[in-house]
Structure formats: structure tokens, C-alpha cells
Amino acid sequence: MNAKRSKTTKLFVLDTNVLMHDPNSLYRFEEHDIYVPIMTLEELDNNKKGMSEVARNARQASRTMDEIISDAEASIDKGIDLTEASRGLATGRLFLQAEAITTALPTSLPTAKGDNQILAVVMYLQDKFPKRPVILVSKDINMRIKARAMGLHAQDYFNDKVLEDTDLLYTGTRELPADFWDNHGQGMKSWKQEGKTLYQIQGPLCPEFLVNEFIYLDDATEKPFTAIVKDGGGKSAQLSTLVDYSHQKNAVWGIMARNREQNFALNLLMDPEIDFVTLLGQAGTGKTLLTLAAALTQTLEMKRFSEIIITRVTVPVGEDIGFLPGSEEEKMTPWMGAIEDNLDVLNRPHEEPGQPAQGGNYGGDWGRAATMDLIRSRIKIKSLNFMRGRTFINKFLIIDEAQNLTPKQMKTLITRAGPGTKVVCLGNIAQIDTPYLTEGSSGLTYVVDRFKGWPHSGHITLQRGERSRLADHAGEVL
């Protein structure tokens, strides 16, 4: 290996699970070198059969390596330059273990185990290149603990993580400082358009504003100011006032916003110019209720969409309940309890809690049953498994429990949208049930981060629970 490179670049030894997690990880180490032990190739070979995501990734990793090696002119033991194969993404070299390594492992570690043979390779490389950082990269926590116990450097594979700290995730809202108008009010222009007031402002905060970000200013003396950024990121910004969905006259399917964030969410859900909405929030913040109310209003009353399609990942919280009988729709029914609960709320007569129902709403019980049938005929529940190759035209697509999706699955779903389709992703990244997904690598975190600032998308993190005092207290103390 080149002595000049050895002082400036690291040598990363890849565990099998990194390649099975991200087959393109070979191109993700920039100027550093990569070393693939024989045991890693052996384990890739053992995991290549089947139709699972892991098997597909194992096959893809093998194909990527085959392409790199077959195009290489240099011999493998000198390392293969990755610059051309990765189209400039990586400038390091790929080394494959081309010799038998007999490093004495501690007697407590059985040599027959694949993990321990990979640790032996790391020990050997550390002895061979004492001045060069040799680092094991593994998704396996126990493997990293063993490596550190043996005095070896080990780290997780971070490249697919959108954020290290989910507290830094874009919330879609920004509180303005109290002196905002003093700094941004000079030379301000304002005009009316389609019933809303628009402001053109200049000032130090304008470059930070993202398109479709909600801004608010709480003033104790006056009514709080809320607006959405229509154009930002430069020296000037354009703000627009919002529709007040907390007022009875703007109720959506009988639902009114109970707090500031819910009002922001309804402004996104009801805006025909916004094609993609993400709503994050703890249990009971009203994500599903607001989305369904907006979907029913725009489908049945405004005729903007032809039908509502709801899908979610079928990851059970407890043990799986085995095969379910019936059609696709019937199999999905147990997973859609949350939707049913919300439909019951949306279809009840709008009486005060604790008061008897007033007669005449929807023509009494018969009318309510008829409305429910009409609503159900417009709502289709689909399984994620049959989404490939479909195109939804003029549909309102709701992806529930989206935190359980990988970025790849999320891409598959969002790219189903045809002309006139609106996609809404709902989820709570604190409740991930899919194994191997974390808050940082969830598909929901990924799309929130990637879509921010696009003029036809919007995001809101709902803060306040509106379910009941019991649910709110349980969320705080348990």
C-alpha cells in the first residue's frame, strides 16, 4: 500500500451487515481505503438467497464488487482505485483479503465464528500498519463492543443517517423574535390576493426562511401574528397570512383547529398547491383526524380528488397474529382501527361532549348510517406489498405510521403519485416498531429533511396532545 496515502487516509474494514444494509456503501467512504475480508464475502454468499430486502442487498453488493474488480487493471493486492467505478464519489482504494491471516485471537474467542475471523483481520491490519488508523465498520453492536474490548477501533455505519440528533429535525415552524417588525418593517410592501394579505419584507432573517415554513409572533398586547413563507432564502421574503381554521366558519368536516400547529397543518392539508405533506407528532396530537377531515372535505364536497387511499406498514406491536383470511381489504382491516375510530368521530352529530345528540343531524341514525356507507365507498385501504408499478391519479394518498418505512420504501410509495394526487405522511418517530430502523434512519425523517423548502411540500410537527387529560398525563409520566 502507498506510504503517502497511509499517513493521511484511514483504512476501513467492512463487516457483512454494512454491505447488506447499504450495497452502495463501498462508494461512501470518500478518500479513505476499504478492506473487505474473505469472511465478509463468505457471509454475503450465505445470505444471497431469497426475496427479502437483506437478500436483495447481498446480491447487489456482490454485483457492485464484481463490476469494480472486473474493470480493474491493477492487481487486487495493490488495491483497486474506486474513482472511476464510483464516478468520483470515492477516491480511495478497495482491498480484498488475498492471503491467509493467522493472528492469534484471545483464547476465549472461538475461531470458527465469522465475526471473530473478521476481528482477527482487523488485528492483523493494525499490526501491519501501526501508524495508520484501522477502523472496523459494523452495524452489529456486540461486534463493536468485542472490538473495543480487544483494543481495536470500531464504529457504526453512519452514512444513511439523516440526522445524528432528531431534536434538530426541521419542525416546519419558527418563532419570530419580539423585535421582528423593527428590523424587517422598513420598506415593507403589502397587498391583498385571493382573500389573503401578502407582505414583502427585507431583513436579517430573510435568508434563513424556507418556503412553506410557518412563522408566528406571540404578542401579549395584540392578536398573535401567524403567516406562511411563500418565498424566502434571499435578501427579501414574501409572507402570506393564513386561513383561520380555529373559527367555526372555516370548520373542515365539522373539525376546528384546537391549537396553532393544528391550524398550520390544516392550511397545508387544504392547499391545492401543496402536493406533499408530512405531519409528525406524539399520540393524540390529531394527525389522523385532521388528515381524514381534510381528505373527506376535498373528496366528497369539493370533488378535488376521486377517492382516498390509505396504506400503512403492517408491523405488529405484540406477537404477529398469523395469516388472516379474506381479501386484501379485509386483511388490512385490523391494522386500520385508528382510521375507523377517527371516522366515528367525524360522522357523529356535532353535539357538546356529555350532552345528548340532537335529532335531525344527517337525518338521524338512518342518515348517519347512509353517510358512513358513502364515506366508506370512497376510502380504499391498500397493502404496501402491492404498490410497485401502480400510478394514482387524482387520489388523496395517506401513508399512516410512516416512521416504520425505510427511505427506499418511502421513495417507492411517493413515486406512485400521478397528476392531481396529494400524498400525506403521518407518523411519530418515537414509536418505531421496525427492527434495524432508528429515529435517524427512518424514511419519515429522511423525507422531512429532503423535502424542506420545496414550494409544493410542507411539514408540521404537532406539539400538543388533544386526546384527553388522561392520555396527556400518561404521555408525560409513563
From TrEMBL:
Signal peptide: none annotated. This is Phosphate starvation-inducible protein PhoH. InterPro entries: P-loop_NTPase, PhoH, PhoH2-like, PIN-like_dom_sf, PIN_dom. In the N-terminal section; belongs to the PINc/VapC protein family. Residues 10-145 form the PIN domain. One of its GO terms (molecular function) is ATP binding. GO terms for cellular component: cytosol. The keyword Translocase does not apply. It comes from Denitratisoma oestradiolicum. Keywords: ATP-binding, Nucleotide-binding. It comes from the Bacteria. Transmembrane segments: none annotated. The keyword Transcription does not apply.
